[in-house]
Structure formats: structure tokens, C-alpha cells
Amino acid sequence: MGEYVGERKVRFVEDVIGPQAQEEIRKLKVGEILVLDNLRLCSEENIEASAEKLLKTIFVQRLSPLMDIYVNDAFATAHRSQASLVAFPEIVLGIAGKTMEKELKILDTILKKPKRPCLYLLSGAKVKDRIKVVEYVLKTGNADKILVGGLLAEIFLKAKGYKLGVVNEEKLKKYSDLLDKAKTLLETYKDKIVLPKDLALNKNGERLEVSLENTPFENKISDLGSATVELYSNLIKDAGLIVAAGPPGIFETKPFDWATKKLLEAMVESKAYKILGGGHLGGAAEILGLKEKFNHISTGGGAMLTYLSGQKLPAVEALKRSAKKFKKNP
Fold first, then answer.
1. Percentage of residues of the chain with pLDDT beyond 70
2. Cis omega (within 30 of 0) for bond into 314
3. Whose CB has fewer CB within 10 Å in the chain, the N or C terminal residue?
4. pLDDT tens by residue, 240-299
């Protein structure tokens, strides 16, 4: 942190709510910065609950008297309802930091005034979050096309009636509720959800591309195939807004990083406004040297998906309540 704050004095204390932390906070002079240890070392910080319940924790009761104002700049955790996120703004004025403010402004624009055509490329392992996004942005008309990859693509393909083979369908058994939801979405928005035309299988570490006409598969699905990448790239080329979250293949393992690379390159070449979710896809863009060519890379994949699915972010709602409360009672 010292690299970013110039000549300001930055200190670290290996404590969170104990006597040492409290003493160091009281000793702070104007302009000085104190970094506490990881808040999650306190068990109470790992509790998901209402602000009313979290106000009763020792964590909040010990630290809140030492505060004059609360600033939340951790957008990546905004989808959680934990003590440091929702309780403190009930006691002192809470405001959003610059990063939080930027994230919310961009996401509000996506939902309220998306450039057209608006395209979502959704992949990755957190399929429950992504299904909610698919449902919400299609229901509200915010998305024109949804392109799917990774496990999400497998769920939609299975819902469509494709037999993906025992090695692939075994892991889908725990997603029976999502399969039903995917089937409904395909029936309702059949022209808006774009499914893969082919896939890449892992055959003894080698990449084997197969058409969906050749199901069931004997090997594990590990990436999108070249025909699908071409289809998706053509849609990306003509998009006005692209929102992407999650790598469409097993990016950590070559040669199953191919589709991720190609689709990131296609996004960069597009004149669309380009947004990536945090996490693996943002990391992939950085590894490939493409990070600076995107208009925005979110600092929080989970929080971004929660917001884009129309759900409220507990930490943001806490700031809103705080603003109303302390505006009336300064």
C-alpha cells in the first residue's frame, strides 16, 4: 500500500479486534494509515446474517466505537452479508469508495442502457449464478444473445436432449434443478441462447474436436470446438456490448485454453464496449497481455453476476440505508 499513498505512513498490526489493534487505532495521527490483519481470522466475520444480528457481535462492538466514518471499496465482497460489510454502516456514516462507485456505475449502465446488440458470453464453474443472469437479462430484454461455454454449456446441451456420455453426465446429476430451468429457458428464448456446434474432448491429454452430431462422447468435455469459436467470434464482431464471465474451457491446461484465447482475441478486435468478470477470465486476459484492451475488468466476478441477475447486493444496500439514516441525523 505504501507504494500508492506517497509519503503517508503505513503501519500493519497483526491483530483485528484485540487490545493491540485497538491501541494502534487510537494512536493514529491525521494522515496515517493502519492496516489490520485479515478480518476473516475472526469467526464472526464469516457469519452471513442480517445487519441487526451482526450488530450484536463482539467484532462490531469492539471496532465501531473507534470509527468516525466507514468507507467500503470492496466491490468483490458486496454480495455477502457479513459484519464488516453491513453492520458498521448502521452505526456510522457509510460511503462507497471510488472502485465501488465505478463498478456500480458501469453495471447500472449495462442493465439500464445497454449498447446493441448486447451479447453475454457466460462460462465457468459457478453455473447457478450464471443461470440466474441468463434468466434475468433475457426476461428484462437487456441481452440480445447469450453464448454459453464450460459447464453451463453442458447443462444447456443436456437440457436440449443431447447425450453427452457417462463421463460428462455423471457430474450433471447434482444440477437436476438447473437442467429443468435450462430447458424452460431454451423453450422460452430459443433464438437468443446460442449453444455450441462442436466441442473439444480430452483424449489422453490430446485435443479431440467432435461435432454435436456424434454424441454420446467417451471422453471428458474440456473446451469449445473450432466451429463454435468461429460462430461466437462472428457474433462478437458485430456486438455493441459484450459482457463475459468465466473461461469457456479448462484454461489452466493446454491445449484446452485455445477457445478462451481465441474468444478473448475476438473481443479485443470487436469495436464493442467490452466488460470481463473478475477471476479466471480476467486473469487469462492479463496472461495474454490483453488486459488493457478491455473497457472494464470487474474486481468481483461473484458480485458482478449477482448484480446482473437483478439481485440486491447486501453491502450496497447497507450503504444506501446509512446515507438515508445519517442524512436525517447528521
1. 99
2. no
3. C
4. 999 999 999 999 999 999 999 999 999 999 999 999 997 889 999 999 999 999 999 999
When pLDDT is averaged across residues 56-70 and rounded to a whole number, the result is 97
Q: Answer yes or no: is 145 within a domain.
A: yes
Assess if residue 85 is contained within a domain.
Answer: yes
The cell for 127 is 453455473
How many CA atoms within 13 Å lie on the side-chain side of 286? 11
DSSP per-residue letters across 182-226:
HHHHHHHSTTTEEPPSEEEEEETTEEEEEEGGGPSPSSEEEEE-H
Same domain, 256 and 122: yes
Whether pLDDT at 9 is above 90: no
Beta strands in 212-321 (DSSP E): 220-224, 241-245, 273-276, 296-297
pTM (whole model) above 0.70: yes
Peptide bond into 255 cis (omega under 30): yes
Q: Is residue 56 part of a domain?
A: yes
Report the distance separating Cα 76 and Cα 91, nearest Å.
Answer: 23
Residue from 25, 2, 1 nearest 13 by CA: 25
The parent domain of residue 265 ranges over 116-271
State the total domains in the chain: 2
- Say whether both 156 and 245 belong to one domain: yes
